[in-house]
Each structure stands twice: as C-alpha cells, then as structure tokens.
Sequence to fold (117 residues):
Amino acid sequence: MRVLAKKPWIWSCGLAIAACSAGFPMTVTTTKPVQPKPTNCDFQIVGVAPAEGYEEIALLSQSGGATSDPTVFKEKVRADVCRVGGDVVVTRINGFGDFLGGSVLRRISVPAPKAQQ
Fold:
C-alpha cells in the first residue's frame, strides 16, 4: 500500500485503463436449458437478425469504454457467447459505429415446409 500512496499516478493509470476498456455483460433471457460450447467456439457477428431458425437466448449490453472494431467486440464477448451456446450475435451499433451490445441467438430446428398436393 505504501507504493500506491507514494505514487498516486499508478491509481490514475489503472482507472484510465479500466474506464477505456469496453465490457459487454450478458443477461440470459431464455428459460430453456443452454448448451455450452467450448470457450473458443466460433459464431457469427451480424447486423440483421436471421429471418427464421434462431431464438434469442441472451442479451449483451455495453459497460465501460466503446469499441468499433468487430474483431475486438467478438473477442470480448466470445467466452459468454460460447458459455450459453450462441451461434449468432445480432449487434446494436450507435451512430459512431461503436458496438452497444447485441442479442445472442442459437439455432433451432425449423420444420420443413409441407409439400403441396
């Protein structure tokens, strides 16, 4: 503690890094069981939700600094998305191009259309 008391700039640097670091806390929205995937799973980042074949399982919200880099966003949310078995994240982006969060979706089976007779 003496080092920190003598060097207040250490506190300032730590606070600046924490404030600028984008975080995306997740809230599970499904009542159905989730099927976790490996922590390094792959998933898609999209701007528009698929028409069908998916259901929302969680929401991501922004906390802290912002990022507009899709690669950075994907890495920041990867562990949580994989933990709930997500296949797609439909992003929410502000007017500056910063990621504000998104909806985590998983694939579901869609019955094949019945053939007409």
About this structure: The beta strands are 22-23, 26-28, 44-46, 54-61, 63-64, 88-93, 99-107. The radius of gyration is 19 Å.
